[in-house]
Amino acid sequence: MVETKKISKRQLILDEAAKLFKDRGYGGTSMRDLAGQVGMEAASMYNHIKAKDEILASICFRISDLYISQLGEISATNTSYGDKIKALIRLHIRLMVEDGPAVSVANHDWKYLPEPKLGEFKQARKTYEKGFAALIEAGIAAGEFQPVNVSVALFTILSAVRWIELWYRPGRDLSAEELEANIITVLLHGLERK
Amino acid sequence: MVETKKISKRQLILDEAAKLFKDRGYGGTSMRDLAGQVGMEAASMYNHIKAKDEILASICFRISDLYISQLGEISATNTSYGDKIKALIRLHIRLMVEDGPAVSVANHDWKYLPEPKLGEFKQARKTYEKGFAALIEAGIAAGEFQPVNVSVALFTILSAVRWIELWYRPGRDLSAEELEANIITVLLHGLERK
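Above: the input entities. Below: the C-alpha cells describing the complete assembly.
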C-alpha cells in the first residue's frame, strides 16, 4: 500500500517534470521549480527522486522502451508490411497526442543524459531505427514496397511523425485520426493520384 | 572596383559566419571569433559589417528571398502540379547540399533576430508556406493529387526535406540526385507499390 503510493507519487513527479522540461527546457528547470509545481517540499521530494538526471533518464527510457516493445509486437503480427508501417505511424502519432511532454523530452533533451545513460539511449534509438528499417527492407524484398533507398524511406517517415509536434494542435481543424489517415496516405500511397 | 572588393569581402564574412553559427551556435560565436576566422582585425571587419545581428539578418533573408523567388518562378512554369512540387523538393535538397551552413542558420537561428526583423522573417516564412500550400491545393483541385489535408501534405514534405540536414552526409552511400529521386518517390508516389 505504502509502496503503491510511493510509485504513483513518483509518476506524478515525472509527469510534471516532463511538462516543465518541455516548457522551460531541461537546463531551465530546477529541482526547486519541480517541487513547487508538484506541491511538495524539496526535502520530501528527494524521498522519491534523487536527482534531475535520474528524472530525465526515467522519462527518456520509458519512451524508448515503449517504442521498442511496440515495434517488437507489431513486427510479430501476421499482417502485411504496409499494415506494420501504418501501425508504427499510428503509434508515433498516438504517443505524441497522449503523452506529448514525455515524447518531446525524449526527442530533444536526451542529449543532457550523463554517461553511461547517454550511450545506452543512443543505442536504444539505433535499435529502434534498425528494427523499423528492417520492416521497410522486408517489404521491399516481398515486392510490397517500391525499391527505394531504405534510409530515405525511414527518415522521411520519422521526420514526418516527429515534426507533427511543431505544427499540430489536437482538435483544431484535424482530429488525431484524420491526421493519421492523411499522413499514411501521403507516405504510403503518395500525393499523386495513380 | 573598390566597391566590388568590399561586397565580396562582405560575402566572405557572411559565409564564414554561417559556418561558425552552425558549428558553435549563434550565441556561442563572437565578432572576435569571426574576425579570427576570416583573418581580419576586428576593427577592420567593422568597415564591412556593423553587428552580429546584421550578419544573422543578411544570412536569413538571403535564404528566404531565394526560396520565395524560386517558388514564384516554379509556380509560373507551364508544368503539372506534380512537376512543380518535385522542383520545390529538388530546390530544398540542392540548397541544403550547396549552401548548407546558411540554410541551417535560416532554419534554426532566425529566432535570435531582433524585431522588426524577426516579424519580417516569420512573415516571409508564412508567405513561402502559403505559396507551397497553394500549389498542393491547386493540384488537388485539378484532380492530379489525392484529396488530402493540405497542411498534412505540406508539413510532411517540408519535414522530410528539413530533416535531411540531420542524417544525410553528401556522397557517402547516396548522391544528392539519388536522394532527390528517392524522396520524390516516397512523397509523390508512396512507399507501397500500386
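Note for the figure: Residues 53-189 of chain B form a domain with the Tetracycline Repressor; domain 2 fold (CATH 1.10.357.10).
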